Amino acid sequence: MASPTKPKLTYSYVAFQQEQQQNPFPGTQLQADLAELTRAAGDTIDALADVRRSDGKLQNQSVTPDSLTPATLALITGEGATGPTGPTGPAGVGATGPTGLTGATGPSGAAGAVGATGATGPAGTNGSNGAVGATGPTGVTGPTGPTGVTGLTGATGITGVTGVTGPTGATGPVPSGFPTPAASTFLQRDAGNTAYVALAVDSARLALAAPVYVATRAALKALDTTKDTTALFDGSIWRFLAGNYSALVTADTQEGYVVKATAIASTVGAWVRSTAFHTPEMFQAISDWTGTAGTSTNNATALQKMLDVAKLTGLPMVISDGPGFYCNATLSVSNLDFVMSGAFGASRIVFGTSATDGLVITQDNFEHATHILSLTITTLGQETGAGLKVTYSNTDSVNNRNQPRCLLKDLDIRGETLSAGWQDGIKATDVHNLSIIRPCINGRRDLGFTDKRSFNLMRYGLYLTNTSGAFPSDLNIECPRIYSCQVGIYGDGEGSEGIKIDRPELVGVITGVSTRHTTTRPLVQVRGGHINCFEFGIDLKNSPQSVIADMLIYKIQLTNTDTIAIKLDTCDFSTIGPNVRLMNQGTDKATNGEWDGIQIISSNYFKIEGPEQERPSRTVAISGTSTGGETRDIRTYGVYTGATIAPYLDTSSGVNSRLGGNRKVVSATNGAVTVTSGNTTVATSGSLNVNKGERFLVHGMINTSKGATAGDFLTILTKSGTATAVFNDSRASLIQRAQQAISGNVSHIVSGVISVTASGTLTINLQGNSQGSNSDVLAGDGQLTVEML
Asked: Which residues touch 762 (CB under 8 Å, ≥6 apart)?
């Protein structure tokens, strides 16, 4: 068929959109353009069918010899084109020879040009495929392709046998001017560069300015300091320094930091280790704790000498990680900048049974700071003393109250085994501005018992005390973790001011936090933690302005012991709450003892806000001379079988108030028609157990229908019971008078506040009294509500 023609589209739809949107859509033009596109696509498909079969191959006989180039045709037939005629050679001389045989017929001449192809007739139906023709001759071999990538190198063959060593060559002549070296000498060019000079080994090392290496302290001491002033020993560089080192030499009997030269007096100079800190290994200590005292090195002397030398040098101490340094004696030091650090949980000193205390630090003033970081202090003894004692002078605490002086961080203090433990974890005496961060202190457990006797072997986890007149203040304790002891955090003496305890975790303790100050010292603040206790969660004495908030306190159920969550004695202006939750792991009082929430004793102007108690006995109990206190929104949950139940009990001689957040305690109505003639009770609250300091809003309403005679109607609130209470601060009852017309229907209202001044039972009655003819009150038309303010 003829070649297909391209489609022609003549209409501009863009112009229509921009200029003729108000006219009808040009559907006719669109239909014509679509027909033109369809025609062009059809012609293209038909033309393609002339040369392509349905299997994707060319149609048979679609390629003819005249459509091939001569070169391509020659590749197929194997015949090249006829070359040009060569030149005629010279005529031969001699007689004419006999006529030769007729030569072979030359090749056929080239075919004539093919005539023009006639017009193609209409396509006939496709005939069946003919048989596959014979395979044509193999084409000419194509050019060689590029060289491929080199393959992997093969394995190296076995090395051949080494040949026989040849004979030693003759010694060459010595260069002119070069001396023959003597044994154990080096040659050096002289200063004038004119000759070589033989030097001994020591002289050669000095010329190179290289330190001598010695293997023992004896060798170090024996060095000639006129030649050697630098040496390598024990992994450090030592330098011989001039000066009076007699005090250090006397203190450092382990020769860890300073070594006296044999031939030089220590007042003149000594060998000094180049270091920025001290380690136990420098003083010949060995971290080889095996778990048994008899098979471990006793490092008591080495560790004590490290402390003594640190006092003189002012350098910090680093306790390396490892099995642990066994030490069968108390380590003590005084009046120095005490800085000791280790790797958390891995740097350990194990104190033996002969160590009454562990580490004892006594300081004269704040200029000698104490900083201990990431150290584990364990004991093999049983309640023999404190793991760590830090004491500052009384004078320092009195005169220097604003300077920080002691930081203890990430300390692990415990028994080395389950059968061992300290009497106190950390004891701080007269330490002003003390900071203790994340201590972990464990007491010894007696696994022969399952009640509180199993937990009370350690005395105090943290012991904060003071001498007369010192009054240390600003004690910051962050995230203490203390387990199994009589008191987790304890303060006594005349008292410390400003003990702030943040996020404590005190578990398996008889008492969580306790102060027993002999004089009133302000502020014990306990926030955001957890106490799991047997007897007291928090027990404060003479700690005014204290704050307890965001705390979870659990009563342990493992013993029959009465438990008080929070007790404040002589703690004026203190606050408990918000978010104080008191949880009871016990099930009944007979098995687990009473579970009292908050006890306030002789503490004025306290505030208790929203305590929540699970299975309580007495939730809030106020006694002594307490006055001016306020308790809000007590919430209790569950029943504690056999307990002495009292959500709020005030037996004090003062005046305190309880606010219930307008919680409704009574809602009563009359159950039948009531005829009011004289004082007639319409609705009653029933008997309520009320406590001194509680205040209630009482609201009464009577809807009456008057009889045939007009008159007044009296709406009355009265009270009865064993409690002492008054309406509106002074009245025994409340009366509201209103007129009512003949046959009128009127609602009469009376309300007031009743305050309880002595605990007991209280019944509140709503009464009506009709003047003139009687008034009828239909069932349900008398209503009485009582809300705790």
From this structure: 685, 687, 688, 690, 719, 720, 721, 723, 725, 754, 756
3-state secondary structure of 302: helix
pLDDT 10s digits, 422-444? 999 999 999 999 999 999 999 99
What is the amino acid identity at position 175?
P
The residues that bridge with 9 in the sheet, in sequence order, are none
- Tell me whether the omega of the peptide bond preceding residue 578 falls within 30 degrees of 0, making it cis: yes
**Whole-angstrom distance, CA of residue 389 vs CA of residue 422:** 12
Element holding 645 (H helix, E strand):
none
Least confident of 17-26, 38-47, 289-298, 560-569: 17-26
Give the residues across from 518 on adjacent strands: none
**CB neighbours of 64 closer than 8 A, spacing ≥ 6?**
none
Compute the Cα dihedral for 181, 185, 188, 191 and give only its sign: negative
| Single-letter amino acid code for the residue at 18 | Q
Which residue carries 């302005």 as its tokens?
545
Sorted by sequence, the CB contacts under 8 Å of residue 334 that are 6+ apart come out as 311, 361, 362, 363, 364
**Neighbour-count burial for 644-668, b at 16+ CB within 10 Å, e otherwise:** eebbbbbebebebbbbbeeeeebeb
Q: Could you identify the residue written with the tokens 């150290």? A: 375
**How far is Cα 229 from Cα 140, in angstroms, rounded to an integer?**
90
By three-state DSSP, how is residue 92 classified?
A: coil
Per-residue exposure over 675-686, b if at least 16 CB sit within 10 Å of its own CB, e if not: ebeeebbbbbbe
DSSP of 98-154, one letter per residue?
A: PPPPPPPPPPPPPPPPPPPPPPP----PPPPPPPPPPPPPPPPPPPPPPPPPPPPPP
Torsion sign across C-alpha atoms 258, 259, 264, 265 = positive
Q: Are 586 and 610 in contact (CB under 8 A)?
A: no
pLDDT in tens, 446-455: 989 988 898 9
Report the C-alpha gap between 469 and 464 in whole angstroms.
15
Whether the CB-CB separation of 601 and 621 falls below 8 Å is answered with no
DSSP 3-state assignment of 45? helix
**What pLDDT band is residue 40 in, cutting at 50, 70 and 90?**
confident
> E-assigned strands of 367-479?
370-373, 376-379, 386-392, 406-409, 412-415, 424-429, 434-437, 440-442, 460-465, 473-478
Tokens (6 digits) for 260 = 């006296």
Tell me the one-letter amino acid at 485.
C
Reduced to 3 states (helix: H, G, I; strand: E, B; else coil), residue 49 is: helix
Strands, DSSP E only, in 190-337? 196-200, 212-213, 230-233, 236-242, 258-259, 269-273, 317-319, 325-327, 331-334
**What phi, psi does 124 have (nearest 5°)?**
-85, 175
3-state secondary structure (DSSP) of residue 484: strand
Question: What does the alpha-carbon distance between residue 348 and residue 296 come to, in Å, rounded to a whole number?
Answer: 14
Structure tokens at 537: 């969660």
Q: Which residues pair with 197 in a beta bridge?
A: 188
Q: Please report the beta strands in 310-381, taking only residues with DSSP state E, as ranges in sequence order.
A: 317-319, 325-327, 331-334, 338-342, 348-351, 359-363, 370-373, 376-379
pLDDT (0 to 100) of residue 81: 54
Among the residues of 694-777, which ranges form H helices? none
Instruction: Report the alpha-carbon distance of residue 767 to residue 681 in Å, rounded.
Output: 4
In the three-class reduction of DSSP (H, G, I as helix; E, B as strand; rest coil), residue 654 is classed as coil
Helix ranges (DSSP H) in 363-516: 394-399
Residues in contact with 125: Cβ distance below 8 Å, sequence separation at least 6, in sequence order = none
The pLDDT tens digits for 661-687 are 777 888 888 888 777 777 888 899 889
- Report residue 646 as tokens: 């009292």
Distance CA 148, CA 150 (A): 6
Secondary structure percentages of the chain, helix, strand, coil, to 5: 10, 40, 50
pLDDT band at 9 (very low <50, low <70, confident <90, very high): confident
Residues composing the chain:
789
Indicate the helix (H) or strand (E) that contains 39: helix 27-51
